[in-house]
Amino acid sequence: MAKPRSDLPMDRIPMRNVLRIVAVLIGVVLLFLTFFQIEPEEVGVVLRFGKYVRTASPGLNLRVPIVERVYKVPIQRQLKDEFGFRTVRAGVRTQYARGSFLEESLMLTGDLNTVVVEWIVQYKVKDPVQYLFKVRSVRDTFRDLSEAVMREVVGDHSVNEVLTVRRQEIEDQAKLALQDLCDQYEMGIDVQVAVMQDVNPPDPVKPSFNEVNQAIQEKETLINEAWSEYNQEIPRAEGEAKRTIEAAEGYAIQRVNNANGDAARFVALYDEYRKAPEVTRRRLYLETMSKVLPRVGRKLVVDESQTGVLPLLNLQTGGEKP
């Protein structure tokens, strides 16, 4: 009995088996390509022959292999672009790279001064279809728009406003202007915030700029001190003036009332005098004497027939008795 040979050439394998193996492999590959996974913070944009047909939700999804293609877009993740610097290592001690991005951060202000502005823009994808297909190189275009908007807004303000008092206003204006451009270009981006991280004058002019700032601070200090003195002196002067005016008005009212009283009393006396002249004259005389006599020290009563007052004086005491 002859033994079977194990060294048959490959071309002796039946073609039917090869086709079966190839079909199984193709089936496995197609089955693998049929399923795709979308992460919770993403959506899948499905294209069929290059045309958008649907958006796949997070989870396990199906597609037609070869015919349909899927682009995953992170719509829940907050994306960030940095300008003027780059984050080398994030963590407790975050490290940044600066110096080689001066072409992004060096800007001209409205009063023709230069300033170095480092800022970040945080955004989300609100329309994945627009984000993928409306604008070519959407990330580069978005960075160019961000830089153009920030330069325009900074150029509308003075260097002191950019460095100090108007930073929040500049950030808000930049955010609104950038969102408006993104909507016009149909980029499908929702701008969350535009934050100025660090704003400084260029290194060559920092010493002079610090001296100017110090002089401005001293000026503001003197102005505040002057206003403090003003707020103390002016109310005091106004109070004194008001008190003087009120005293004068009171004095005027008193004098008018006294004059009116004297006039009324004179009219009353005149009326009484017309009714009884002799009695009124005597009464007035007695009233006048009652007011005058208490003010006189020593009183001498002289008879009408007396020719002098010498006998009545006590000349031996050397003077008048008190």
What brief labels describe this structure?
single chain, 322 residues, alpha+beta, Tetrahydropterin Synthase, Chain A, 3 domains, four-stranded antiparallel β-sheet, three-stranded antiparallel β-sheet, 8 helices, disordered C terminus
Structure notes:
By secondary structure, the chain is α+β, with helices and mostly antiparallel strands. It folds into 3 domains: 15-73, no CATH class; 79-201, Band 7 domain (Tetrahydropterin Synthase, Chain A, 2-Layer Sandwich); 218-290. The chain contains 8 helices and 11 strands. It has helices at residues 15-34, 102-105, 128-133, 138-155, 159-165, 167-185, 206-275, 277-292, and strands at 35-38, 42-48, 51-56, 59-62, 68-74, 79-83, 86-89, 95-97, 106-108, 114-125, 189-200. The strands form 4 sheets. Strands 6, 9, 10 and 11 form a 4-stranded antiparallel β-sheet that branches. Strand 9 and strand 10 (114-125) form a beta hairpin. Helix 4 runs antiparallel to helix 6 and helix 7 packs across helix 8. The longest helix has 70 residues, at 206-275.
Fold topology:
Elements: H1 15-34, E1 35-38, E2 42-48, E3 51-56, E4 59-62, E5 68-74, E6 79-83, E7 86-89, E8 95-97, H2 102-105, E9 106-108, E10 114-125, H3 128-133, H4 138-155, H5 159-165, H6 167-185, E11 189-200, H7 206-275, H8 277-292
Antiparallel strand pairs: 1-4, 2-3, 2-5, 6-10, 7-8, 9-10, 10-11
Helix pairs in contact: 4-6, 7-8
Quick rundown:
The protein contains 8 helices and 11 strands. The protein is an alpha+beta fold and 322 residues long.
